Amino acid sequence: MQIYFSIICVLTDDNECENATQPCGEHANCTNTVGSYFCMCAPGFKSSNGQQTFVPNDGTSCVDVDECSNEGTVACGDHAKCENVDGGFNCSCKEGYQPSTGKLQFKPNDGTSCQENPEAKCVLYKDCVTEHVNKTLAEIRRLKTPLEMLQEINRNTLGPLLPVDVISYIEALSYSSLNTMQYSVPDNEALRNTTINVLVSTVNNFLQKDKITIWEELPVDNQRQSLTKLLHTAEQATLLMSQNFKRTTQLDANASDIALKIFAFDSHHMKHIHPHVYTEGDYIKISPRKKEEYQPNGTVAVVFLRYSNIGSLLSSPKNRTSKDSSEQRETVSSSVIAVAISSNPPTLYELEKITFTLKYTKTADKDIKCAFWNYSADTMNGNWATEGCELTHSNSTHISCKCNHLTHFAVLMSSGGSVGVSNYNILTRITQLGIIISLICLSMCIFTFWFFSEIQSTRTTIHKNLCCSLFLAELIFLIGINMNNNKLICSITAGLLHYFLLAAFAWMCIEGIHLYLIVVGVIYNKGFLHKNFYVFGYISPAVVVGISAALGYKYYGTTEV
Asked: Which residues lie below 8 Å from residue 225, measured CB to CB, with a gap of 6+?
């Protein structure tokens, strides 16, 4: 018997693309073949060796293709720009244009085009602004209650805003908060508290740090007018809602860039309640006039508001014209605080004084003052004023003030050509050190030219007088520059500085004349010339100073004594 055996071998391909994790590396696709496999870069990427296919571990990687670098291959369309991303690119509209489909990012040939945004420059044209304001007011008037209006404005101002939106929604906020609340203040305490919180949140939407750049796009007049209306609206609307509290109340409502505190009480609690606020380093307190008797059944509402980011908007414009370029620029160097009081009857709670301490938000300057925002409720135009306010104390971090009226308060810093206190002290020490070194060197020169007879000549005589003039000018400057507490001494110091500096320039001129005479070889009488040198070097500066002092003596010295 014969037995036969046979062996059948079945071969199957090993799919390397499935058995390994990313065998081709990042941004590459693996393609399996019989007995092997190869790699290709994903769309939007290309191989580093320039070949369409490659094998793993040969040093080839897939790098991003910058489609935006070749404008000929990418056509995003007119008024659009290309933005490269890993594995592709996106198109977006340039500033001042908006996509027709509403998509911020789009692809070429998907039906999206960039159209001019009519509202982007609307703020420059009065008719356009008026139309936009009327449209916004019409939308708000459809709502019935102040809370609904505030909620609608709050929703519409949460995101990015255009300059014209700032103007329009502040007008709408003023209408919803002042016009409607006069007749429909919520009686329900919970509803009233909700309305106050929504008001604070809405005002905060306009004043957040990322919105400040939008304000700066407005013309200065529109900027200040709209901001003043916003501050006025926040203050008056809060007062309106605070008058209907049925019991003694203290309410806080805070947002990222605004803080509100309300005190509401009746005449029976006036002696025991002392309205004050301490927040983020700022302190403010009001002191009413003392009375022997208080009227019964009266009510009082006191509102405190603190704004942390509006100082730059209320500072003097940076782009001054040549007409006022010599004036000092006033910069708000603290937060802005507001205090408002409403009492029924009006004579129940009368202000005696308000005291506040504010923390500097910028390096304190030598010239600081307490100020208030003085504006007209009719035109909403305002400016900083100091009447009725006085500085009581200041240090390197805080300033304390006292005022006899209510409004919005802040610390102003005049920064025309001055520097901060710390920088001022450093520069003063550097100047003093430089002058002392110069005086030492000048004294050595004077000693050499005066006592070494072997080097005596016309040239050394000129050098000696020049060094003496410079030495005296610098010595007077070093000693007298800070003696400005006396008007007479300050004026004498200024006159002497004027004289000796002119004398130094005169002797420099003489040195040039002498050098010319030597070069051209002119023969001259040394004795006669020396006498004229002294006349020109010392008498002529005295004549100039004398005439200047006679015609404008008040300009010698300083007015800040």
From this structure: 379, 380, 381
